[in-house]
Amino acid sequence: MNDKVISREKWGVAVVIDIERKTAEIKDLFFTELKKAKGPEDLEEIRVRFLGKKGNITSLLKSIKNIDPSERPKAGQLLNQLKEEIELAIRQKREALLEAFYQKEEEEDAIDVTLPPRGRKWGGFHPVAQVMEEVVEIFASMGFTVAYGPEIENDFYNFEALNIPPHHPARDMQDTFYTTNGLLLRTHTSPVEVRAMRQMGAPLRIVVPGKVYRRDNDPTHSPMFHQLEGLLIDEDISVADLKGCMEAFANIIFERSLKVRYRASYFPFTEPSLEMDVECVACSGKNPECRICKGTGWLEIAGMGMTHPNVLRAGGIDPQKYNGFAWGMGLDRIAMLKYGLDDLRVFFEGDLAFLIGGRQE
Ligand code: DAH
């Protein structure tokens, strides 16, 4: 019997355990298994198999009591050494696996700043902006160009040059926002008519989309709203030209041929002055309860008329040689009618569910 073999008589049976060989075997097996471990579950399984209550090392440790007492310390030492080695190896492997896990996660979550942007799905044009663009395009197709003017105006362009007398109610503190330095927020886009005449002279064909301001606030009036002004100056222009132009516009914007009617009206800057109505886009006058036309069957679309000679003069144009027509319409109102809305305020409340229904870019 070689001296590495520790043995003892037990119940007449010789128990022979080669502790060194056994520990070497277990160690080999352990490291082969450890190498294969891929995650914390595998590690736990290995730990139980080698160090658990019924594990390899534990049962060997238990068997020490069967060997020769003089050999027990050495055997115990060997086994404890192996146990510690295994514990350490498991701990290190656990750390290595964890490290690898975090590294992988970091790589997967990494942002590649060299990639092109994916773009954003959200965002779109406001319904009023869409209508504004559509209306401008219709008049552009008839040869009108777009002109702009300041939103902070002076009394001359907003009122005086437009033949609006000093006592006119539009100048009232109730209607107009005045600045502290004597200017005002334009109450309509009409001042750009005179600015454009002065800048470009005649003949002239412009449309002016933009924001205007009045001291109003109710379901159908907002303190800021949008208008589109139109002005055509040339020789021998008649009301028939004005009507033809406006009817062509109405048919395109509402996408079908609608009945129209004109009512005599008054604006200081036009003579004669008219108001144009189109048949109700919702009920064509067939529904006395219609919430769009309020049962009247008609919708007011624009104020218009033949440009007053005083306005031409203020714009530096000779009324003996030139005449023309002008109109002004509320774009928010056109948008309301086009989309079948009865409360203007939805345009200004910023409710995304409503706004995102619009065209996406
Ligand atoms: N400026 C007018 C308003 O704000 C609208 C208007 C009416 C403009 C007749 C015009 C026009 O050019 O001819 O109520």
What's the average pLDDT? 89
Quaternary state of this entry equals: single chain
CATH C-level label of the largest domain: Alpha Beta
Binned strand content:
15-25%
Fold-level CATH name of the largest domain:
BirA Bifunctional Protein, domain 2
CATH superfamily of the largest domain: Bira Bifunctional Protein, Domain 2
Quote the distance from N terminus to C terminus: 91 Å
Number of helices: 11
Q: What is the topology, as strand order, of the major beta sheet? A: 3-6-7-11-10-9-8
User: Level of helix content?
Assistant: 25-40%
The CATH architecture assignment of the largest domain turns out to be 2-Layer Sandwich
- Structural category is alpha+beta
Q: What is the number of independent domains?
A: 2
What is Rg? Answer: 45 Å
Uncertain segments: none
Task: Please summarize the sheet with the most strands.
Answer: 7 strands, mixed
What's the total number of strands?
Answer: 11
Shape: rod-shaped
Order of helix and strand elements from N to C terminus:
EEHHHHHEEHEHEEHEEEHEHH
- What molecules are bound to this protein? 3,4-dihydroxyphenylalanine
